[in-house]
C-alpha cells in the first residue's frame, strides 16, 4: 500500500508543479478509484478568477463527471497539502473513502492542524486520513515557491526605487 500511495503522491507533486508553472500556489491533487485516475487538479484560483478552484475541488469535480455521480465512493484523494476547511467539507459531502496528504498546514489545515473537520465526530461521513506522505518534498516545493515569490517582490521593489532615484 505504501508504494501505491507514494506513486499517486508523486503524481500529485507533478500536478503541483503545473500550478507553480502557472503562477499559482503549488498544490496538486489526484483522485483515484482502484487503480485508475478519475480526477486531477492543481491550484487555479488566480488564473480562473475563482476562489473555489483549489486542487482538491478541481479533482473532485472531475471525478464526479467521470462517475456521473456526486458521491465519489471507494475513492482515495491524494493531495500535496493538508486541505482547507472548504476542501475538507467538499470531501465529506462527496463521500470519498480516504484522504492521503503530504505537508501539514498549520495556518489553514482542516485535517487536524488548525481544525479537524474530517475527524469531527458530528460529521455524517468519516474519511480515513493519512497525513505526512512525502511531506518533506511537498513542503519543500511550497517553501521554494514562496521564497522565490518573496525574492521577486524584493527585486521589483528595488527596481522601482532605482527608477525613482534616476
UniProtKB/TrEMBL annotation:
The keyword Nuclease does not apply. Its cofactor is Zn(2+). The keyword Transmembrane does not apply. GO terms for molecular function: tRNA-specific adenosine-34 deaminase activity. InterPro entries: APOBEC/CMP_deaminase_Zn-bd (IPR016192), CMP_dCMP_dom (IPR002125), Cytidine_deaminase-like (IPR016193), tRNA_aden_deaminase (IPR028883). It catalyses: adenosine(34) in tRNA + H2O + H(+) = inosine(34) in tRNA + NH4(+). Its EC number is 3.5.4.33. Zn(2+) binds at residues 54, 84, 87. Pfam families: dCMP_cyt_deam_1 (PF00383). It comes from the Bacteria. Residues 3-114 form the CMP/dCMP-type deaminase domain. Keywords: Hydrolase, Metal-binding, tRNA processing, Zinc. The active site is at residue 56. Binds 1 zinc ion per subunit. Catalyzes the deamination of adenosine to inosine at the wobble position 34 of tRNA(Arg2). Belongs to the cytidine and deoxycytidylate deaminase family. ADAT2 subfamily. Homodimer. This is tRNA-specific adenosine deaminase. The gene is tadA.
Amino acid at each position: 500500500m505504501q508504494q501505491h500511495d507514494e506513486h499517486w503522491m508523486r503524481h500529485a507533486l507533478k500536478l503541483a508543479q503545473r500550478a507553480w508553472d502557472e503562477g499559482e500556489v503549488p498544490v496538486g491533487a489526484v483522485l483515484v478509484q482502484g487503480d485508475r485516475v478519475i480526477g486531477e487538479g492543481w491550484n487555479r484560483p488566480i488564473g480562473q478568477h475563482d476562489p473555489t478552484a483549489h486542487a482538491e475541488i478541481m479533482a473532485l469535480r472531475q471525478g464526479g463527471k467521470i462517475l456521473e455521480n456526486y458521491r465519489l465512493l471507494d475513492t482515495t484523494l491524494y493531495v500535496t497539502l493538508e486541505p482547507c476547511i472548504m476542501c475538507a467539507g467538499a470531501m465529506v459531502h462527496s463521500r470519498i473513502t480516504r484522504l492521503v496528504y503530504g505537508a501539514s498546514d498549520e495556518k489553514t489545515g482542516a485535517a487536524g492542524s488548525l481544525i479537524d473537520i474530517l475527524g469531527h465526530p458530528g460529521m455524517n461521513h468519516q474519511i480515513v486520513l493519512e497525513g505526512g506522505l512525502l511531506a518533506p518534498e511537498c513542503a519543500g516545493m511550497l517553501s521554494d515557491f514562496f521564497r522565490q515569490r518573496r525574492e521577486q517582490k524584493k527585486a521589483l521593489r528595488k527596481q522601482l526605487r532605482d527608477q525613482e532615484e534616476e
